[in-house]
Design goal:
- The structure is a homodimer.
- The first copy, chain A, is α/β, with parallel strands linked by helices.
- Chain A has one domain: Alpha/beta knot (3-Layer(aba) Sandwich).
- Chain A has five helices and five strands, in the order βαβαβαβαβα.
- The first copy, chain A, has helices at 14-27, 43-53, 71-83, 101-106, 120-138, and strands at residues 2-8, 33-38, 58-67, 88-93, 109-111.
- Chain A has a five-stranded parallel β-sheet.
- In chain A, α3 (71-83) links the parallel β3 (58-67) and β4.
């Protein structure tokens, strides 16, 4: 499957930018992973933009009110989508005040990265590390620590 | 309260080192926050070292099998400990194969940062951002994004 991570706003903290670049670089070995930034704004505006940008894909929406799977459960979910022949999955990270109910309804999966409130840019980092972890597990590789 | 974050092993990834330094620097404005690295090793060895290094403190043990509070619930927990006159709280991050049952039994709180398996160094980063977030909330400050 192809992957697109769509995020409202651009990272401003250096460590978060570096970490994001680090995982995107590693992921090039595992397939197609694209990071797209869309304009930040109100919950309504951002949810609308994320919805439009992810048409025709399996939508995984990051939201504190979502499900809390383990990494292995996430791998199973991936495998299920691949078996069904889905071509593209998108991960949507929204404005700090959350997604609209409408976008959550349109999601194929609502994923909570943590019960704790994470800074936007750190949430992106946690997501990317997880996407990378899933990719290594699916390929049967030991996790690369460095 | 004084804070000590005690971690098995040293971060090796640059972005994680930078992010860790970033939050420790910010936290200097909010009180005493110390990061201590102990030697990595087996679950038993590391749990023993963490236990010894945290004697006489309120122990918060990071473990995937722990509770999943919201940030506000974490703030309430903090306030409770302060009301009780506790002087020092320690956050314990262990080996990748987890803490021993014994250390978890000795914990005042077992905290799960995420249902997902996070790389050690990223877990430290998520914890530090959260400790920083709690500190800003307790002081009634808006969260500092940069």
């Amino acid at each position: 499957m192809n992957h697109e991570i769509i995020v409202a706003g651009k990272p401003s903290l250096k460590y978060a930018k570096d970490g994001t670049a680090e995982y995107l670089k590693r992921l090039t070995r595992y397939g197609s992973y694209k990071l797209t930034h869309i304009k930040d704004g109100t919950s309504e505006d951002v949810s609308k933009r994320l919805f439009d940008a992810s048409k025709g894909t399996v939508r995984i929406v990051m939201d504190e009110r979502g499900a809390t799977p383990t990494t292995q459960e996430l791998v199973k979910l991936y495998n299920k989508w691949e078996m069904r022949g889905y071509k593209k999955v998108s991960f949507l990270i929204g404005a700090s005040d959350g997604h609209t109910q409408q976008l959550r309804n349109e999601a194929d999966f609502v994923l909570s990265l943590s019960s704790l409130t994470l800074m936007h840019e750190l949430a992106l980092l946690v997501l990317l590390e997880q996407v990378y972890r899933v990719a290594t597990i699916k390929r049967g590789e030991p996790y690369h620590r460095d």
